[in-house]
Amino acid sequence: MTPWTRDDDNVLSAEFSDIETAILRDLARQVGELVESADHRDPALARLLPDAYRDDPAAAAEFRRLTAADLTARKAAGIRLIGAMLSDSDSGRVVVTDPQALDWMRALTDIRLVIASRLGIEEDGDEGRTDSDEDLFLRNAFDWLGFVQDSIVQALEDTL
């Protein structure tokens, strides 16, 4: 991946290799399906949509009832945006406006939270499981997505 940069048209762009595009599209598809499934028994989804009131189950349930559909729809739309923009690019070059860059950052955070949940990463410094090839792949994807996300942040900050 070439890092995100701001071009002369005042938009951000980056280029992804074919394999990076395939991996990111697949991760976005899987996380999008998880978000839309609304299976709150899944620890990864519980991490994406945590209870607002941990000490008050009734208040947490009421808050979830009032906000879950909208929050879930926004998360799913952001994740779908990544997949759609990558699908629309023949060259692997993705161009985003500042609001779309923020959508990308939120969606990448959601994908990374799901991966962290799958690996048992709870806080900064945790390595998570690395017992299998799948765990190692997910760990590498987690780190790479952090780079992609940081690259967007740097491109946005460079224009301030």
Descriptive notes:
With 160 residues, the protein is mainly alpha-helical. The protein has one domain. Helix content is 65%, strand content 8%. It contains 5 helices and 3 strands. The protein has a 3-stranded antiparallel β-sheet. Helix 4 runs antiparallel to helix 5 (133-157). The protein is globular, with a radius of gyration of 17 Å. 21% of the residues are buried. The model has no long low-confidence stretch (mean pLDDT 91).
Q: Output the helix-strand order.
A: EEHHHEHH
* Integer count of domains: 1
Biggest beta sheet attributes: 3 strands, antiparallel
Strand content: 5-15%
Number of helices: 5
Give the radius of gyration.
17 Å
Give the termini distance in whole angstroms: 24 Å
How would the global form be characterised? globular
Q: How many beta-strand runs? A: 3
Segments where pLDDT lies below 50 for 5+ residues? none
State the helicity in percent bands.
55-70%
Name the descriptors.
160 residues; mainly alpha; 5 helices; single chain
Helices and strands in order, then pairings?
Elements: E1 2-6, E2 12-15, H1 18-37, H2 43-48, H3 57-87, E3 93-96, H4 98-119, H5 133-157
Helix pairs in contact: 1-3, 3-4, 4-5
Task: Describe this structure in a few short sentences.
The chain is mainly alpha-helical and 160 residues long.
